[in-house]
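Final report, closing paragraph on structural work. Over the funding period we assembled a curated collection of sequence-structure pairs, and we close with a single example.
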Amino acid sequence: MIQSQPRPESFGLPSDTGGRDLGIFMPMANGGWILSKNAPTLDGSYDYNLKAARLAEDIGLDFIMAMAKYRGYGGETQHWNTSLDSPMLMAGLAQATSRVKVWATVHTILQNPAVTAKMIATLDQISHGRTGLNVVTGSYKGEFSQMGAWPEGVDHDERYVLATEWIKGIKALWTQDSVTMEGKYFTLDDCMSNPKPQAPPFLVCAGTSKVGIEFTANEMDALFLSGGNVEELAKASADAKAEAAGHGAKIRTYSMMTVVFGDTDEAAEETAAHFRAGFDEEALHGMMRAYGFLDSEIGKENAFTQKARSTFMTPHVLGTPETVTARLSEIFEKTSLDGLMLIFPDYHAALPTFGEKVLPILRERFPSRMEPAHG
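Its predicted structure, as stored:
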């Protein structure tokens, strides 16, 4: 029998007390998040990620997170055709760091909940309580059918039924001596999993549909949102938090942002133009197929295509450190976002600049509140 467990409100993050959480999306697949043959070469190697993680910790960022990817987008750049395993990568980086939070990604349709519970509990022990789990319900049919793992007949909404069983089983295994559960998709019979995490791992996902937000409200601690501008992000964050409140829950909201520095704003714009000039059209087609777009739609202009044709796979800010600081500040001032996960064309080159010229100002402008004294 599964016993419900209350979710904690504190995770040792600035957002616990009103600050903003800042971290990086690990470059664990070749090409990073720019679809261009003119972008800096990111090989997705462990050594590159190790240096990036240590820089993130050294400059004072709050978390590092790695996606899980099993099939790339191809094209001239062979984009994401090489990628590391997310929990394995984060275990290595947990050992190589001491403070920054380490969040790994697992796809619900690929891993049994008992296996996942064990993996994340191990990561928790390696990191001494710094771990988190990014839950992906899965929508990449070609990525999973190549290994015979695509569940036919399980549509978008039904994947959240599966994911709910999955995460409930994991939470139970993290807290109970023995778990028996007979669900539609998973069965646990007097199932045991030790060791237990020393504290509940931070749980995050990116489902923004109605059922996705309901799943987040009931089971997760944070939600990643997408939005092309400040107004869209403000509405998405407010709507998600209101939906969660309707379920009696409180969630944190994050978004992703690619940062391109330049000595001048014009220089940063020129860098972005250089990326666009090397746009990998075939890799875009591979991405669209992975996201379930029909081949017949490829080449037709729509919002998705137009955004990707900038070569950036996420919203982005361009400019001097001062301009970047102003734009990130505007995002936090005008939205209820609790944090940002940052992406850079070259992490090794950009992280020291971010740490020296941007991060201290953001910390000063958006400080964590001191906890009130008791007694």
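The chain is about 40% helix and 15% strand. The radius of gyration is 20 Å. We thank the funder for supporting this effort.
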